[in-house]
């Protein structure tokens, strides 16, 4: 295809978290881009569709049967395919696509549609999954709804809305909780969907690039189970934890939550054996794929002078050769896994066993 790939963004979040507000803002802001929006009807959200259509010149295609979760692949595939075809014929003019999922949808199958279908993969580039979280109701939703936890686990970027309705300590505890579920995703507090477009588009969350955006301190506390008491002040910035290696997090109302969506990291200064690692990851994905939401690594492989980058969504894994290790650069491997009740010990021991 001569055309450049059309970037696609998945927007997810529970009802009331402000997705529609964010979407309206993105559509009406003067950025000179034409955006096609795909959304699925879900109960009262149809009212929002009326507003969106009348306010802007965007073309909105609604997925007919409401629930994205079960039929998404075929429905979404057909819609994306039709959009791309109409664009090629010059009937529609748009530069990017935003898919707004229902508050109850698991973003996994939506994301997979971009990789599993050749026709879609030739037309679109999945840019990122954005998740909106409502600060007032988030803890309750995360406690009671696995979909809400999945949306966190899948995210490349998390926007926390309604922070003005709760106190600072609650917001901080929520950010902390989210960071344990997904240390890859950047978090940002937003008011009324006021988000700069640079935080919404072209985030390249699915690119195979050499940055593994996780807070380095996250790697140092991995060996500990966060269950011993260690108090420290709350004067740290929101970007990362400030507990040193081996210190536990002891934030208020943090321990009440034992979320099934968790993340853990593996780090080693020894090279991997390529064949062992490939066999091990292949086996793990076969067994645990459905529970693996996002995983990524920048690896030192024996026999290669280049970094190897891999990442995956559920059962689909891709890898690529990155740039050469720079002269004098300390070689090491870093991996992060985000999933539902993954057997951390088995995975960490298995990875250890793949080292040369």
From TrEMBL:
SUPFAM superfamilies: Hypothetical protein YjiA, C-terminal domain, P-loop containing nucleoside triphosphate hydrolases. Residues 261-355 form the CobW C-terminal domain. The keyword Transcription regulation does not apply. One of its GO terms (molecular function) is nucleotide binding. Keywords: Chaperone, Hydrolase, Nucleotide-binding. The keyword Cell cycle does not apply. It catalyses: GTP + H2O = GDP + phosphate + H(+). It holds the Pfam family cobW. Belongs to the SIMIBI class G3E GTPase family. ZNG1 subfamily. Zinc chaperone that directly transfers zinc cofactor to target proteins, thereby activating them. Zinc is transferred from the CXCC motif in the GTPase domain to the zinc binding site in target proteins in a process requiring GTP hydrolysis. This is GTP-binding protein. It comes from Scleromatobacter humisilvae. The lineage of its organism: Bacteria, Pseudomonadati, Pseudomonadota, Betaproteobacteria, Burkholderiales.
């Amino acid at each position: 295809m001569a055309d450049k790939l059309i970037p696609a963004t998945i927007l997810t979040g529970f009802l009331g978290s402000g997705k529609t507000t964010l979407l309206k803002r993105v559509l009406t802001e003067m950025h000179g881009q034409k955006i096609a929006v795909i959304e699925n009807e879900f109960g009262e959200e149809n009212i929002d569709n009326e507003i969106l259509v009348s306010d802007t010149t965007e073309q909105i295609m609604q997925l007919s049967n409401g629930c994205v979760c079960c039929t998404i692949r075929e429905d979404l595939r057909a819609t994306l395919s039709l959009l791309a075809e109409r664009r090629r014929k010059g009937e529609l003019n748009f530069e990017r696509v935003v898919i707004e999922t229902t508050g109850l949808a698991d973003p996994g199958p939506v994301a997979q549609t971009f990789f599993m279908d050749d026709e879609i993969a030739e037309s679109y580039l999945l840019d990122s999954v954005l998740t909106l979280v409502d600060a007032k109701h988030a803890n309750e939703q995360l406690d009671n709804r696995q979909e809400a936890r999945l949306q966190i686990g899948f995210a490349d970027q998390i926007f926390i809305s309604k922070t003005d309705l709760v106190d600072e300590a609650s917001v901080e505890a929520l950010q902390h909780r989210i960071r344990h579920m997904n240390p890859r995703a950047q978090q940002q507090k937003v008011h009324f969907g006021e988000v700069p477009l640079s935080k919404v588009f072209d985030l390249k969350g699915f690119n195979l690039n050499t940055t593994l955006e996780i807070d380095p301190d996250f790697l140092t506390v991995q060996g500990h189970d966060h269950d011993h008491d260690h108090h420290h002040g709350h004067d740290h910035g929101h970007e990362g934890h400030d507990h040193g290696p081996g210190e536990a997090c002891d934030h208020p109302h943090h321990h009440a939550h034992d979320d099934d969506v968790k993340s853990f990291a593996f780090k080693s200064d020894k090279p991997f054996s390529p064949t062992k690692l490939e066999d091990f990851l292949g086996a793990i994905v076969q067994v645990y794929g459905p529970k693996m939401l996002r995983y990524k690594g920048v690896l030192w492989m024996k026999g290669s002078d280049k970094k190897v980058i891999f990442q995956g969504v559920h059962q689909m894994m891709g890898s690529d050769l990155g740039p050469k290790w720079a002269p004098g650069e300390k070689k090491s491997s870093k991996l992060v896994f985000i999933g539902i009740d993954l057997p951390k010990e088995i995975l960490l021991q298995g990875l250890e066993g793949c080292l040369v």
